[in-house]
């Protein structure tokens, strides 16, 4: 039963990571579409210096682009911090398993110490717990 | 020196009142513009020789325009036409006519302008840029849609020029020999031998 819970929570984590990855892929595609990487075409060009109004218009366009980029950066940062917070949360089943082994409060744990604490668990359970701790960023070498 | 030239053969009309010949340097090739052209998003540009040469046919028959303050383009104020274009060295030289009768004030102002003050500026459509991320954009393909006469200081290329031609070589008045009363050699061309509207191309290497 506990193993099933662990596997379910693993699946949930994988789904979250997958959706985050696809979101990032979409963002990259959008950025590439907005700004061609190398070659490009200009619809109209005249070899006269830009007038004041043209300069102002170009400045406005650049400001709009800057605002859009800043907004996107802020969104990506927020997503990053949310996923970092999510990583720190262990599934209840894993916490219970660890508590039974005497590990009730932990921010991080070394692999060697964890092996010693989990000796009472089956091999499958140990693998699942370690996987959860790794995903949560709580397991250090 | 390498020469690439193309021209429209125009019928000669002696003392045509609406044809005031001009010549100028429209741009330089294989050299970066002095300042960013309008539409280049702040980048200076290089028009390659190959791109300019390939675009010469698109330049013939295009109009020259002007702005009241001679500071830019006004594509709807067309005061003349380009009939000949040559790439000579690194210069793209053009010849053509201003519509002198329709725009007497333009001709007058150009005649009164200080020598060397006037320049030219091209108008391009569908300009292909080799690398949009480069500081200086290299134009590898383009179509000329016209040109403007403007103050040289307002041109993106410093080394352009414009001047009214001293002689009306294509609308020459036939000269009679005073002694014989016959027309002087070369001063008359029969219309039957001309090819109206035909594009002539010559190449010298």
Any overview of this molecule?
The complex is a heterodimer of chains A (about 140) and B (about 200). Chain A has about 140 residues and is mostly helical. The radius of gyration of chain A is 25 Å and the shape is rod-shaped. The two termini of chain A are about 30 Å apart. In chain A, strands 2-3 form a two-stranded parallel sheet. In chain A, helix 1 packs parallel to helix 5. In chain A, about 70% of the residues lie in helices and about 10% in strands. Chain B is mostly beta strands. In chain B, strands 1, 2, 3, 4, 5, 6, 7, 8, 9 and 10 form a 10-stranded mixed β-sheet that branches. Strand 1 of chain A pairs antiparallel with strand 7 of chain B, so a sheet runs across the interface.
Task: Please give the structural blueprint.
The complex is a heterodimer of chains A (141) and B (205).
Chain A: H1 2-34, E1 40-46, H2 52-87, H3 92-100, E2 109-110, H4 111-117, H5 123-136, E3 139-140
Parallel strand pairs in A: 2-3
Helix pairs in contact in A: 1-5
Chain B: E1 3-8, E2 20-28, E3 44-47, H1 49-59, E4 63-66, E5 78-88, E6 91-98, H2 104-112, E7 118-129, E8 136-151, E9 161-164, E10 199-204
Parallel strand pairs in B: 3-8, 4-8
Antiparallel strand pairs in B: 1-5, 1-10, 2-6, 2-9, 4-5, 5-6, 7-8
Helix content of chain B: under 10%
Could you give a short account of the major beta sheet of chain A? 2 strands, parallel
Q: Mean pLDDT of chain A, as a whole number?
A: 79
Structural class of chain B: mainly beta
The largest interface is: A-B, 19 and 35 residues
Cα Rg of chain A? 25 Å
Structural class by secondary-structure content of chain A: mainly alpha
In N-to-C order, the SSE pattern of chain B is: EEEHEEEHEEEE
Quickly count the helices of chain A.
5
Total E-strand runs of chain A = 3
Kindly report the average pLDDT value of chain B: 84
Number of helices of chain B: 2
Strand order of the largest sheet of chain A: 2-3
């Amino acid at each position: 039963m506990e193993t099933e819970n662990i596997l379910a929570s693993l699946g949930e984590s994988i789904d979250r990571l997958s959706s985050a990855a696809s979101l990032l892929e979409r963002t990259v595609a959008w950025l590439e579409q907005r700004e061609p990487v190398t070659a490009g075409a200009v619809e109209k060009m005249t070899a006269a210096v830009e007038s004041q109004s043209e300069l102002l218009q170009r400045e406005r366009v650049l400001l709009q682009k800057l605002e859009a980029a800043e907004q996107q950066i802020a969104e990506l940062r927020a997503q990053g911090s949310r996923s970092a917070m999510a990583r720190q949360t262990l599934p209840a089943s894993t916490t219970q398993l660890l508590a039974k082994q005497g590990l009730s409060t932990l921010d991080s744990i070394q692999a060697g110490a964890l092996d010693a604490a989990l000796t009472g668990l089956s091999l499958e359970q140990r693998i699942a717990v370690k996987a959860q701790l790794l995903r949560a960023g709580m397991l250090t070498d | 020196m390498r020469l690439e030239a193309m021209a429209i053969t125009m019928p000669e009309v002696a003392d045509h009142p609406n044809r005031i010949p001009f010549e100028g340097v429209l741009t330089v090739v294989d050299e970066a513009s002095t300042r960013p052209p309008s539409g280049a998003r702040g980048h200076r540009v290089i028009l390659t020789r190959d791109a300019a040469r390939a675009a010469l046919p698109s330049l013939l028959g295009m109009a020259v325009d002007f702005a009241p303050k001679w500071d830019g383009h006004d594509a709807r104020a067309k005061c003349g036409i380009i009939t000949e274009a040559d790439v000579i060295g690194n210069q793209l030289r053009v010849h053509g006519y201003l519509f002198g009768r329709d725009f007497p004030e333009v001709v007058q102002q150009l005649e009164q302008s200080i020598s060397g003050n006037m320049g030219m500026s091209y108008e391009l459509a569908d300009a292909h840029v080799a690398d949009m991320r480069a500081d200086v954009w290299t134009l590898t393909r383009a179509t000329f849609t016209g040109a403007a006469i403007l103050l040289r200081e307002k041109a993106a290329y410093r080394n352009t020029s414009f001047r009214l031609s001293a002689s009306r070589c294509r609308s020459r008045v036939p000269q009679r020999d005073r002694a014989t009363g016959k027309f002087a050699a070369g001063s008359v061309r029969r219309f039957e031998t001309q090819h109206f509207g035909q594009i002539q191309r010559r190449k010298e290497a």
